[in-house]
């Protein structure tokens, strides 16, 4: 029998890289369009066996909050991987100036066995 373990990591993103005097770079706050973009790129378009996947994203008080699932034990290196994925997924002017992995939730272990 094999045991599969995973974690969900809460990430907060603040201050998109907009240029205030250039309106076409977007709003100074995150919007639902940013949430939709993250969902599409890091959840819906990823293969089902991707090692890291966006579970959900939302806006809370102007902060873009995302929840990622990973089979890797949370660490600074894993947080940097979430940052890398997010930077690749968001358009240049929507990338965060501040990116923090703020909380980890153990999902638990799932026992996988073939009974035959």
Low-confidence stretches: none
Helix coverage percent of residues?
A: 10-25%
Give me the CATH fold name.
Alpha-Beta Plaits
| Tally of domains | 1
Series of secondary-structure elements, N-terminal to C-terminal: EHEEHE
Tell me the overall shape. elongated
- How far apart are the termini? 13 Å
Which strand order spans the largest sheet, edge to edge or round the barrel?
A: 2-3-1-4
Describe the structure.
The chain is α+β, with helices and mostly antiparallel strands. β2 and β3 form a beta hairpin. The protein has helices at residues 32-44, 76-89; strands at 2-16, 53-60, 63-70, 96-112. The chain has a four-stranded antiparallel β-sheet with strand order 2-3-1-4. It is 23% helix and 41% strand. It has one domain: Alpha-Beta Plaits, CATH 3.30.70. It is elongated, with a radius of gyration of 16 Å. The model has no long low-confidence stretch (mean pLDDT 90). It has two helices and four strands, in the order βαββαβ. The longest helix has 14 residues, at 76-89. It starts with a strand and ends with a strand.
């Amino acid at each position: 029998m094999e045991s599969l373990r995973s974690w969900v990591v809460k990430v907060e993103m603040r201050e998109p890289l907009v240029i205030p005097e250039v309106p076409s770079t977007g709003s100074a706050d995150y919007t639902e369009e940013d949430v939709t973009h993250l969902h599409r790129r890091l959840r819906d378009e990823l293969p089902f066996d991707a090692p890291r996947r966006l579970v959900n994203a939302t806006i809370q008080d102007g902060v873009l909050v995302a929840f990622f699932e990973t089979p890797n034990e949370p660490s600074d290196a894993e947080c940097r991987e979430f940052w890398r994925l997010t930077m690749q997924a968001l358009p240049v002017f929507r990338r965060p100036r501040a990116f923090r992995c703020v909380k980890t939730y153990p999902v638990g272990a799932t026992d996988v066995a073939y009974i035959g």
